[in-house]
Specification:
With 399 residues, the protein is α/β, with parallel strands linked by helices. The protein folds into 2 domains: 321 residues, TIM Barrel; 61 residues, Alpha-Beta Plaits (2-Layer Sandwich). Helix content is 35%, strand content 19%. The strands form 6 sheets. Strands 3-4-7-8-9-10-15-16 form an 8-stranded parallel β-barrel, surrounded by 8 helices. A 4-stranded antiparallel beta sheet has the order 5-6-14-11, with no helix packed on it. Helix 4 runs parallel beside helix 6, helix 7 packs across helix 8 and helix 8 runs parallel beside helix 9. The radius of gyration is 24 Å and the shape is globular. The two termini are 43 Å apart. Bound molecules: flavin mononucleotide (FMN). Flavin mononucleotide (FMN) binds next to strand 6, strand 16 and helix 10.
Length: 399
């Protein structure tokens, strides 16, 4: 049996699946259900002193869209868009002291962890809430420098507004890491031009780990009404964002030697494996739990374990970062010998889809037969992508 245990910032997790800070972790009863479903940890809904963020939560709106951009109604599409607006924990942060101690005790009995999350309005309050989280016996806390909504609100000086300012982000990280002993993880925003420099800045300031990456701000239009869904801009994500999240993750994994919790776009265990192979130690899941229920957690944990057993990965570390390390630079790719398309006529059905998509005029039709011109073929592989028969067209080194 593969070993699913993970060490993240010195805290031992029984498996790499954690429920991220959001609605599934916004109450004691929700947190307990996440833990019962097998989560190795939960990040509590972000604790705050910000009235603006409380107001936002009390005005929460959600729209889940299908691939066409319509409300999905019925069976959840694999590539849904979760378009939503919600703030931080609705209760005053002081009230969470009791919730933290109770859920931490519950987690401990299940060999799991409750992780704090903080998003305050002033440096003093960031430090105060971090101390409260530590006093409640919590072993790890996340700073929410990524929440997309403050960018749309005059009164909410928190979330991604901090993540967009590497100097302030570093000062705040330093103030907090100097005031508490527990490891502090920084959750970053993708809405910066150079995410690696922000990650480096908070590392230098004392961050023990990173969460990569919070959500984007989006604009989703209902063409029937001619208006945006939920009346305006909102946070946006969903499984289709995974390829973007993984790019941030791979860049940071390459450049910043800190443990990373990956989030944004995980729908099932396959996605979780992609996050690990890109460089994540832990995975944080949110909207799939909101839409499929707590069983999504169990399915991801079980699926990761089964995949590792089948493929013979002894532990999570054996998979971590392998895809990022296998990634070639453009220059390295250009230096490789050119490969050319070749057709297996036993398999080719002459459907001609490859011809339609060859934009270098290397594929032509001769009678019913598709022919390839190796002088024109540049080995781009689009023909392989569109071919419905595996192996009927391959791109390979010339004999
Ligand atoms: C409705 C909603 C509320 C969220 N609230 C928070 C929050 O309070 N704090 C935080 O750090 N992230 C928050 N997030 C971001 C999630 O924790 C998570 O990182 C993000 O949704 C990407 O994961 P997913 O693709 O599994 O949904 C929220 C996301 C959603 C959709």
């Amino acid at each position: 049996m593969s070993d699913l245990k993970v060490d993240f910032c010195g805290v031992k997790f029984k498996n790499p699946v954690v429920v991220s800070s959001a609605e599934p972790t916004n109450s004691v009863s929700h947190i307990k259900k996440c833990l019962d479903a097998g989560a190795a940890g939960v990040v509590v809904k972000t604790l705050t002193d910000s009235e603006a963020m409380h107001t936002l939560t009390n005005n929460s709106r959600y729209a889940v869209l299908n691939e066409k951009g319509e409300l999905f109604r019925g069976r959840l599409p694999r590539f849904y868009t979760f378009y939503s607006r919600s703030g931080f924990a609705k209760e005053p942060y002081e009230q969470w002291y009791a919730y933290l101690t109770e859920t931490q005790e519950y987690a401990r009995e299940r060999d799991a962890h409750v992780i704090g999350s903080i998003g305050a309005s002033t440096p003093e309050k960031w430090v105060e809430i971090a101390k409260m989280v530590e006093d409640a016996g919590i072993e790890l806390a996340e700073l929410n420098f990524g929440c997309p909504h403050p960018s749309q609100m005059k009164e909410a000086k928190t979330g991604m507004l901090i993540g967009q300012d590497p100097v302030f982000a570093a000062e705040l990280t330093h103030a907090i890491t100097s005031a508490v002993k527990i490891p502090i993880v920084v959750k970053l925003t993708p809405q910066v031009s150079d995410v690696v420099s922000v990650a480096k800045a908070v590392k230098e300031a004392g961050a023990a780990g990173l969460t990569v990456i919070n959500r984007f701000v989006g604009f989703a239009v209902n063409i029937e009404t001619g208006k945006p869904y939920i009346d305006g801009r909102a946070g946006v994500g969903g499984p289709w964002v995974k390829v973007l999240a993984l790019n941030y993750l791979s860049q940071i994994h390459e450049a910043v030697p800190l443990p990373i919790a990956g989030t944004n776009g995980i729908y099932d265990w396959r996605d979780a494996i992609e996050f690990i192979m890109t460089g994540a130690s832990l995975m944080q899941v949110c909207t799939v739990v909101m839409l499929k229920g707590y069983k999504a957690i169990t399915e991801i944990v079980d699926g990761v374990g089964k995949f590792m057993d089948e493929k013979g990965y002894a532990n999570v570390a054996a998979m971590r970062g392998i895809a990022t390390r296998a990634s070639l630079t453009y220059e390295e790719q250009f230096a490789r010998p050119k490969r050319k398309s070749a057709i297996d006529y036993d398999l080719c059905t002459s459907c001609k889809l490859c011809v339609r998509s060859c934009w270098y005029d290397a594929l032509t039709v001769d009678g019913r037969k598709v022919k390839t011109d190796s002088d024109k073929c540049i080995g781009c592989e689009l023909c392989v992508s569109v071919c419905p028969v595996p192996g009927a067209i391959r791109v390979q080194a010339p004999a």
